[in-house]
Design a protein that fits this description.
With 263 residues, the chain is mainly alpha-helical. The chain folds into 2 domains: 96 residues, no CATH class; 167 residues, no CATH class. It has 9 helices and no strands. α1 crosses α3, α4 packs antiparallel against α5 and α7 packs parallel to α9. It is globular, with a radius of gyration of 19 Å. It starts with a helix and ends with a helix.
């Protein structure tokens, strides 16, 4: 039964990954994610069902549009496959239940934000603001009904919403200070995203998320500069590192916190 659920989780993930591709493509350009239906961006031909089978359609068409031959970005099957693996991992990590649903929702948000910032250097408010609203609602309902998932550290507060509010304030405030000091080196989208991450992870796990983002971002930036893949004046989006750090914190934040406490 476990293998069956893993398989179903993977299949659900690649389907959702296909939808996340649409969201990541359309939101940065203020297009509706509902209308018009899926179409080739080059020739505008509406895609049929056989053109939209996640991963397999890309392989069958050899990475080209069936109607005009335009190249389909490699990102599409990579996101589908990656989301499938992510969902299988989420099931393996959390099992069936409320924690799985909450973590999967947040991970979907972070995947979309990672893509849009990486490709367009944009963190759409249409994703961040609803995410903040959902995080507040989930934390509030969890506090009312006494449900606190394992992804939130037990900081001693009786109400989850307190952990979330403190975490959100710390995440937002920390990057706000960085943005003000750097005078444009840190985008305001990153500041709002840090607030969302703080709400999602809560206090004190927000510190783990910020630490992981800064360390990973610094290491990657150093490598890019050393190999002259980026210049000192080139923009290196910080949002992807925040998103990856947030997901890592959801998975292993409490373990890292315990290790740091006893080291």
């Amino acid at each position: 039964m476990s293998n069956l659920w893993l398989t179903l989780s993977f299949l659900l993930g690649i389907i959702i990954g296909s939808f996340l591709n649409v969201v990541a493509d359309r939101l940065p350009t203020d297009k509706s994610i509902i209308s018009p239906p899926s179409h080739c961006p080059a020739c505008q031909h509406r895609l049929s069902i056989k053109d939209l089978v996640p991963i397999f359609s890309y392989l069958w068409l050899k990475g080209h549009c069936r109607y005009c031959g335009a190249t389909i970005p490699m990102r599409s099957p990579m996101v589908e496959l990656g989301t499938g693996i992510l969902f299988a991992f989420l099931y393996w990590h959390y099992g069936l239940g409320g924690e799985l649903v909450i973590a999967a929702f947040y991970c979907c948000l972070f995947v979309v934000l990672l893509i849009t910032d990486l490709e367009h250097t944009v963190l759409p408010n249409k994703i961040v603001y609803p995410g903040i609203g959902v995080a507040l609602i989930v934390a509030t309902l969890g506090s009312i009904f006494g449900f606190e998932p394992s992804v939130v550290a037990n900081s001693g507060f009786e109400l989850w919403i307190v952990d979330a509010a403190i975490g959100g304030g710390i995440g937002f405030g920390f990057l706000l200070i960085v943005a003000l000091i750097s005078r444009g080196g840190m985008g305001w989208g990153d500041v709002k995203l840090a607030g969302l991450i703080g709400l999602v992870t809560g206090f004190p796990l927000v510190f783990i998320a910020m630490f992981l983002a800064i360390v990973s971002g610094g290491l990657v930036a150093t490598v890019l500069l050393l190999f002259k893949l980026k210049g000192r004046k080139d923009i290196i989006p910080f949002g992807p590192f925040l998103c990856l750090a947030a997901m890592a914190t959801l998975f292993w934040g409490n373990d890292l916190l315990s290790w740091l406490a006893f080291s």
